[in-house]
UniProtKB/TrEMBL annotation:
InterPro entries, A to Z: EF-hand-dom_pair (IPR011992), EF_hand_dom (IPR002048), KIC/PBP1/KRP1 (IPR044205)
Superkingdom assignment: Eukaryota
Single GO molecular function: calcium ion binding
PANTHER family, per database record: CALCIUM-BINDING EF-HAND PROTEIN, CALCIUM-BINDING PROTEIN KIC
Leader sequence segment: none
Domain EF-hand: 64-99
Record-linked Gene3D superfamilies: EF-hand
Classification via Pfam families: EF-hand_8 (PF13833)
Protein name: Calcium-binding protein PBP1-like
Length: 117
């Protein structure tokens, strides 16, 4: 059975499996890893406020405000070191809005729409 923590993340119960089905588990993880590599601060090996701010344009997130970036880091930073490592990033991606995913990859959007039909 699914362990559904319903803290405003209800949508992912539908969204997540559909994506997995479409891309396969490997392809899905690859997408997330690609995202991480795009955003990571190469010196530190984690995603920081600076790296996220600087590189978010690559994912079509140019309009993201400082406040939103800070929220994203804070939301995803599970061990409190101020940066997102790969696991924290992947975890965060599962929890973020599908709209963000849609911006970063049309493929993911298709997976979402597919599920709604
Ligand atoms: Ca961290």
């Amino acid at each position: 059975m699914m362990d559904s923590t319903r803290e405003g993340g209800v949508v992912f119960e539908d969204f997540f499996p559909a994506m997995m089905e479409k891309l396969g588990a490997d392809g899905f993880m690859k997408e997330l890893c690609n995202g991480f590599r795009l955003l990571v601060d190469e010196d530190k090996g984690v995603i920081t406020f600076e790296s996220l701010k600087k590189k978010s344009g690559l994912l079509g997130l140019k309009d993201t405000s400082d406040e939103e970036v800070i929220c994203m880091i804070r939301e995803g930073d599970l061990d409190g070191d101020g940066g997102l490592d790969e696991m924290e990033f992947c975890t965060l991606m599962f929890r973020l809005s599908p709209a963000l995913m849609r911006d970063s990859s049309e493929l993911l959007a298709e997976a979402i729409n597919f599920d709604e039909m």
